[in-house]
Amino acid sequence: MTGGRVNNTRDPCCRDTTGHPSCTLLLLRHFLFLHVHWKIPCPDMASSKNLSRFWEWGRKIICVGRNYAEHAKELKNAVPTEPVLFLKSPSAYVREGAPILMPYYTNNLHHEVELGVVIGKGGKDIAQASAMDHVEGYALCLDMTARDMQDQCKQKGLPWTLAKAFDTSCPVSDLISKDTIKDPHNIRIWLKVNDILRQEGSTSSMIFSIPYLISYISRVITLEEGDLILTGTPKGVAAVQEDDEMVAGIDDIISMKFQIKKQS
């Protein structure tokens, strides 16, 4: 039998690959963790995380609603005085080459193109003045929204989980370095559906800046490496149908393509 202490950055465990009964593992665990003095520290697995593939291990997708005044107005929402926050699950991530799946319970799936901010250094109660030091880079993102479900949730005073957090609701591009985007508050984001331009706007129109958002969010939720913040969408959101093809981009820096398919 072979066993060892494994540090997965959460709870310690022991692992056996030779098929021994669980009682043997329990005895081994007791011996390893209570009676053995470990002279060699376990490696910090967090140090091996590849930030360029944040979607594979990032724990949180934090979204900001109504961060462009014209978008708030087009949906007949009040322009907020403080950020409107909601969450997506990690299973919302989808990468180019895989389809966006339209949930079975919606007949009104909308696109929302957004600039994403990838956190490279975690923190709590982050000051605005140092907030950009916590940014690893950026990503082109979509916040796919079941608008009919969102409207129902609003009417009933319910969370937006069904509308916003379903699987494949967060298509993302590759990581874009901070050096590539010199000023994230002055870039053009755009989206086409079947070669027709639907959304186009500048991040200069954001109500709340990236440093403000990072500081605000970190007062509520501890930010961690690999977390993604979606910073809001400009006006022009609209419905897509099965087999529609969407192409989104940030200036001429990056673009991505996705097709809509119905959930089977």
TrEMBL record:
This is Oxaloacetate tautomerase FAHD1, mitochondrial. SUPFAM superfamilies: FAH (SSF56529). It comes from Engystomops pustulosus (Tungara frog). It comes from the Eukaryota. Residues 60-260 form the Fumarylacetoacetase-like C-terminal domain. Its EC number is 3.7.1.5, 4.1.1.112, 5.3.2.2. One of its GO terms (molecular function) is acetylpyruvate hydrolase activity. The lineage of its organism: Eukaryota, Metazoa, Chordata, Craniata, Vertebrata. Transmembrane segments: none annotated. Keywords: Metal-binding.
